[in-house]
Amino acid sequence: MQRRIPLRGLAVLSALGAAFLLASCAPPGASDPDESAPADGGGTFTVGLLASETGFASATGTDMKNGWDLYWDQHDDTAGGWTIESVYEDDASDPQTALDKATRLVEDEKVDAVVGPVLANNALAVADYLDGAQVANLSQTSADDVTQRKSSPYVIRTGAFAGSQATFAAGQWAADEGYMTAATICPDYAFGWDNCGGFASAYLAAGGEITNQLWYPQGTADLSTYATQLAGLDVDVIFAGTTGGTDAIGFLQAASDYGIIGTTPVITGAATTSSNPLAQVGDVTIGVHSVTYYAEGNDTDVNVAFRDAYEEAYGTIPSVYASGAYLTAQLLDKVLQDAGSDKPTGTDLVDAIKKVAPESDDLVWGTVSFDDYNGVVAPLYVNSVAKRDDGKLWNVVDKTYDDVSQFWSFDPDAWLANPTFSQSFTHQG
Amino acid sequence: MSVAPASPRITRPAVVKAVVALAVIAFAFALPYVVSEYYVGVATLVLVSAILAASINLLAGDGGLVSLGHAGISMAAGYGIAWSVKEELPFGVQLLVSLGVTLVVSAVFGLATMRMRGVFYLMITVALGMICWGIAQKWSVVTGGDNGLSRNWPPEAIRPYWTYYFVVLAIFLLATLALWVISRSPFGLVLRGIRDSESRMRSLGYRIASYKFAAMMLSGLFAGLAGVLMVWRTGFINPKSGDFIASALPLIMVVLGGLGTALGPLVGAVIVVLISQVLSSYVDRWQTVLGLLFIASVILAPRGLVGGVRSLAARVGGRIGGRRPPAPETPATTE
Asked: Are A49 and A134 contained in the same domain?
């Protein structure tokens, strides 16, 4: 016994001493910190694509990657005089991993911009890191604060609406249709709070009244108990803001089983009526309304071309995530075509995107611009689920609300002075 | 069972061990000079994960008490820091808040589990871990909810990634040394006695529940330490740091590396972190790789890699040196 302690103990102690010594002396020469402005000539623009390719949000990552790849396949990976090089990283649907992978993209791959991530918590963490690293982040997330309370000149939301922004039109639409009372159901965490917050803010501002708000725990798949509660309510319209995963399937199924669909108008956020839940639940979803910033059934020339190419390449109808990545690629292409030989990075890239967007008339989302906080301003579509000629269910546009900003009709300063949405702060105004 | 021989004869396994340990430590020190920031960050993550795994190893290896909720404790400690940063409290107070939270949460864990064992112990810790996660997720005024809290940095002096790496390395070595001492102390021996025969220890007059409570408090302290270091590494925390997977991964590390061995948690952490961080950049199905490796390890090397290598070495060269069984030390005869 006594013999082993000195042997190992000495080793550990000397190692400790060395650790403290090293920690207090000069930095290792391995990486010099000032290399945020890569100068790799040869006209290559490197983009890091940070997507959730594994984990619970893997479907979003795949769609995002597909949308991105489709655009650059169509354009031979070139934009003006620049060659686009895409580096893919998987954040495994985990914010710590996302931060590590973002570090890898910036430090090892020396990317000129990072596209993604989709998940709110990942995106908030990564945006914060990229702001510090002074690398442009073309964000694809719905997290409100990325372009609100934590907005940064390096971060621009090119691939998604803010969580609450995406549902404003649902509230306005419900009021426009003359529905005087509403109930809401959303998952009980940030995403759901934002989703219901947007609906409630716009609906109350338009004169509606919300009688019940149901919140279900994150990860709930069986929503039948909530559906029975909803079915027993005497309301004119129901808003549902599911995450688009198993809860979307659970909600649509239960709403059908308990006779809600068909008796009470239902309007949902974009995720609930995305292609997977519709395919899983089937024809009973026909007639369900949704509010989206990308409607696959929109018959503009730009969208038809995008949709057809996407279906030909991947065999599925494009999702909001695919459209967001495609839009981001479109914007980047336009910026680089105007860029000449000076590579636009950091805030220059963000500013160039803000400048080029309103001048473009061929964007997949329609007319797009950006506000002072780098939040996207674009149309919102109110759709209903319909059956396509080939039997697939999709969303067809009923009504368009143009130029929806992340602050709707509210004053940005007043909005930002309020806390983020939660169960105890459910609406603005 | 061979008690350590009296003569100060240096055995071959001891030399091999010392050489391996020195090589590993030398490698650890050289690392920041040869690899990029990202990989230094990964190495830091390995060390922090290893501390968390080691805290589970103390309970599971010595006490036979398998906790599947330890990420709840480490997350609570992390939130102690993050909340203090949000409230702009001074650094010393941040540490005190974090320590306080760690002690309270560990005490809750300890009180709820001190009369449990086996699968009941496991299930209670799972439940407690999930409660921690649920509180973090719902109590958004304090925790930021799912969106988490950012920019919770350590003091400027240890903030640069390579400085932070050395600091974590030093803390890891200290923690490993401390756990090694605890494991070989009378307290550790009692824990092993409880693991091997609770009824016999009770009849010998040991207050089993107190020992289990104390073991959880000690283990919780190390878990809390890991939680603080985890937050400082990226400055970010959200409830994912305390979800079921976050609790399961360190346990997988312990089992992969070698339950009840001093180096096991580190070896396990190296494997799991390399697969989840580095291999995942090249292989989409990295989780499958991790799963297969875990199954293979349980079947082929039930004592984990360290245990497996040890018994292999014992089989090959054991005739020469003082061979001893892998996990348990001498029974508690020296009370």
From this structure: yes
